[in-house]
Amino acid sequence: MNINHYIQASQQLGEFLLSDNEELTAIIHKTSIYNSWFTIDNIHKSLRNIAIEMLNADKLTTWLNNYLIDYTSIEPKKVGIVAAGNLPMVSFHDILCVIFSGHQLQIKLSEKDKILLPFIFEKWIAYLPELKDKIEIVERLHNFDAVIATGSNNSARYFDYYFSKYPNIIRKNRNSVAILDGTETEQQLVQLGYDIFDYFGLGCRNISKIFVPDNYDFALLLKALKQHNYVEQHTPYMNNLDYQRTIYLMSQTKMLDINFINIVENSGYSSPIACLYYEFYSDKNIVLEKLKQDSELIQCFVATSAIEFGQTQKPSLSDYADNIDTMLFLKNL
After folding, report:
1. Measured between alpha carbons, how far is residue 326 from residues 96, 120, 146, 148, 291 in Å?
2. Is 275 found in the same domain as 165?
3. 3-state DSSP helix/strand/coil percent for the chain, to nearest 5?
4. Which SS3 state, helix, strand or coil, does residue 261 take?
5. Which of 7, 183, 228, 296 has the most neighbouring CB atoms within 10 Å?
6. What are phi and psi for residue 296, nearest 5 degrees?
7. Distance (Å, rounded) from C-alpha 117 to C-alpha 115?
8. 105 plus 143 within the same structural domain
9. What one-character-per-residue DSSP string does 270-301 give?
């Protein structure tokens, strides 16, 4: 395995994903028709981040230098991936980890994202033909040595049962939060809107809840969020909004006045689609301690002293889901 060839082929793939290639445009359009949640804009957004953050040759080299993998002595294992399908290409980081750790990939695609990934694999193999023997798409995992599976809390129980005797990473539901202190600028709050609305809030890195200080004035936040009213044009999203709004109205739950998202006070983390929870606090340190105690429920949090506003859905190579170092797991197989 010549790692430099892998890096250069991946760089070429990244350049292709950023291009105006007609074949790529056609497959993006086909994907958006197959899954209405995968809009053309959101697919481009995902591909752009993958190309810039995960397929850049310099970034790949720097990332791999953290692991010092001896590719001459690796005994390749077959690693099965049960792919998620909540966002376009959301499993790509896991795929990249398997390939660059020197192992073989066996992947069960999500029904929600089964058009784009096979096409991307074909293009990657065109740049690096030896990948053909390292990537296998299957309907059911078999004869594997390790597993990476992502799903809901419910499906995770089944994964634990079926895959417990194999080395595994089993991911469950997580949510992301933001801590506001009232000093945020309008531009920061506009950026927060991307953390909330990108991919219609379907990702574990999307902000599903905000913590705000007692007596917080929501006026500036609501003004900033209105710049993201493009979600009103998406019928499935608005259907979810109307359904949840009906439930809140019937239960006489108080909502903040904004047309395209239900903002309600709630102590939970996992808000439904088209909803955003908020909770008041009097001491920020208490919130930080709460998040520490609930770390297994939290993917990431945004604050002036943490992840910058607008960056949650722009993960880099070192941003591992559930804070589990996938490359280290694979290196130690």
Report:
1. 10, 21, 12, 9, 23
2. no
3. 45, 15, 35
4. coil
5. 7
6. -75, -10
7. 6
8. yes
9. -PPTTEEEEEEES-HHHHHHHHHHTGGGEEEE
Percent of the chain with pLDDT over 90: 87
Q: 188-207, pLDDT tens digit by residue? A: 999 999 999 999 999 999 99
- In a shared domain, residues 103 and 199: no
Q: Among 166, 170, 173, which Cα is nearest to 149's? A: 170
Tell me which DSSP letter residue 332 carries: T
Rounded Cα distance between 271 and 325, Å, is 27
Residue 11 tokens read as 């760089």
Q: Are strands 207-213 and 78-82 parallel, antiparallel or unpaired?
A: unpaired
Phi-psi region at 143: left, alpha or beta (left = phi > 0; alpha = psi -120 to 50): left
Structural domain for 201, as ranges: 175-302
How far, in Å, CA of 10 to CA of 12, rounded? 5
d(CA 322, CA 90): 14
Q: Quick one: three-class SS letters along 240-259?
A: HHHHHHHHHHHCCCCECCCC
237 vs 239: CA distance, rounded Å: 5
Locate tokens 């990657």: which residue? 124
Based on the domain organization, do 297 and 254 belong to the same domain? Answer: yes
Interatomic CA distance for residues 192 and 176, integer angstroms:
12
Span 2-32, pLDDT tens digits: 899 999 999 999 999 999 999 999 999 999 9
Strands 168-171 and 175-179, bridge-based pairing = unpaired
pLDDT single digits (tens) 157-180: 888 888 889 999 999 889 999 999
- What's the pLDDT at 156? 78
Residue 133 lies in a domain: yes
34 beta partners: none
Residue 216 burial (CB < 10 Å; 0-12/13-18/19+)? Answer: middle
Joined tokens for residue 20: 């105006």
Alpha-carbon distance 79 to 219, whole Å?
50
Tokens in use for 198?
């990108």
- Does residue 56 form part of some domain? yes
